[in-house]
Design brief:
elongated; 28% strand; alpha+beta; 5 helices; nine-stranded mixed β-sheet; binds uracil; single chain
Amino acid sequence: MRLEKYLVNCGLGSRRVIIEEVKNGNITVNGEIVYDERIDIEKEDVILYREKFLKEKELKYYALYKTSGYITAMKDDNRPTVVELLPSWFPKESFFPIGRLDRDTEGLLIFTNDGDLNQKMTQPKSKVEKTYLVELFFSIKDEDIKKLELGVEINGHKCLPAKVEKVNEQAILLTIVEGKFHQVKRMMRSINNKVKYLKRMTFGKMELGNLKEGELMEILLEDLI
Ligand code: URA
């Protein structure tokens, strides 16, 4: 494992903080100061930070069925957040949601303490698919579906091609690999339609499945990517 990843897993701080700590000579590997966070370390290596042992935290993953009415944030002074949906035992301080769902969007929201995964799952280049059930105010035409499949433009940004499955005249299953602000709503606006109801059904390999509204379930990394 790379030293940098190990230090992230120990909760030493963001990558920027870690690069700084290493540069300042605060990390030793088997008694030697190291100045390059990209080096590989082995299980038996002794890593000290300012002469103290570090403990790798256990990485965990949870799936929540978010209901409407909650913003995706761990703290907000005025509005109810998804934290209100989490059970009291949940260690809120060290966990965060991967990506965001709008306040009025329902469905699958992943929580983790794995900083690396956040990046992996949200970067468009990683091509992690998310499928939404999109109910619309107006009927969707075949030509609109073609436009979505080719990649519509939202505020000057050309979206990557989407997968579309028609559910009925006013509902589709839309699969995308990007996660721009209000992406689905803006994509629907670009084809002169409007979202009535939005629910995330899948994220990576994980499906909403039999989760009940407001329910939280521990999952494995392999369930996600
Ligand atoms: N796209 C949106 O417009 N809203 C969401 O909550 C998720 C995707």
